[in-house]
Write a sequence for this structure.
């Protein structure tokens, strides 16, 4: 079995944002969700290149929606996290949890 | 809106037409800056193509440099080396050839060609005694780029 490609920090953030947004996950709400949860507005260039990379790795799939007038007749590209994307982000988060276990960080307590 | 159309056109040279359209749609909807995003996606797309499978692109760039050198030798033999029409035709020919050999990765191929060309030129100037750099309007390079962009657009229309 081929080793699963690893996930960078921003890739995990993007995957989690797509999962949180759900069915309406296209560029604008994904970016807004990241901003709302992390307090930082990701550069659009970084976001779109990360989405393309995640799709190349097989962690997300995308489909085109219908064109809308407020977008100048351009369609939305909706993203969905695949099963291996969910597994990869869960595995990465488990690693974080293991590393945090037993640590006393300011304002946070981990059992 | 016109600016978004131009940006979409430029972006579609580097990514698929659907992706370019969706990105520009998002930027229009959110009224975000366009050019920095286009630039970043273009650079990322080219560098990804170059890093993922560098071997074939480097080989292609070397072959194109050999073609270029052959055209320079031919033009010198015919005393045409400074003629813009000759450089134009040579540039168009090499651009079409690069596009034909690297379908879908046209911009990465042309970037590899320019990078390798600059390295070769720098090595030549460093090793040839009394070598100097002359800055002239790059007719051949411009023609090459136009040929590559035209081929890319043609492929997108057919897709």
């Amino acid at each position: 079995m081929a080793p699963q490609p690893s996930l960078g920090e921003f890739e995990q953030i993007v995957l989690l944002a797509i999962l949180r947004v759900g069915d309406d996950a296209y560029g604008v709400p994904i970016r807004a969700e990241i901003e709302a949860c992390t307090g930082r507005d990701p550069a659009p260039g970084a976001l779109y290149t990360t989405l393309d990379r995640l799709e190349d790795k097989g962690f997300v799939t995308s489909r085109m929606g219908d064109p809308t007038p407020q977008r100048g007749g351009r369609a939305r590209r909706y993203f969905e996290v695949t099963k291996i994307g969910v597994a990869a982000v869960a595995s990465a988060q488990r690693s974080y949890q293991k590393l945090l276990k037993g640590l006393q960080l300011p304002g946070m307590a981990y059992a | 809106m016109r600016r978004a159309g131009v940006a979409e056109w430029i972006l579609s040279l580097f990514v698929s037409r659907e992706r370019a359209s969706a990105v520009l749609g998002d930027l229009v909807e959110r009224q975000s800056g366009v050019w920095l995003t286009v630039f970043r996606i273009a650079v990322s797309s080219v560098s990804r193509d170059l890093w993922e499978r560098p071997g074939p692109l480097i080989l292609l760039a070397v072959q194109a440099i050999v073609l270029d050198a052959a055209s320079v030798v031919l033009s010198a033999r015919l005393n045409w080396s400074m003629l813009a029409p000759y450089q134009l035709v040579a540039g168009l020919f090499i651009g079409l050839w690069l596009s034909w050999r690297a379908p879908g990765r046209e911009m990465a191929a042309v970037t590899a060609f320019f990078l390798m060309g600059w390295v070769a030129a720098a090595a030549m100037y460093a090793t040839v005694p009394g070598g100097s750099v002359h800055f002239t309007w790059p007719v051949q390079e411009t023609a090459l780029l136009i040929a590559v962009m035209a081929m890319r657009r043609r492929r997108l229309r057919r897709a």
In short: Chain B has two domains: 1-44, 53-158. Chain B touches chain A at residues 1, 4-5, 8, 15, 18-19, 21-30, 32-33, 36-41, 44-45, 48 (CB under 8 Å). Chain B has seven helices and no strands.
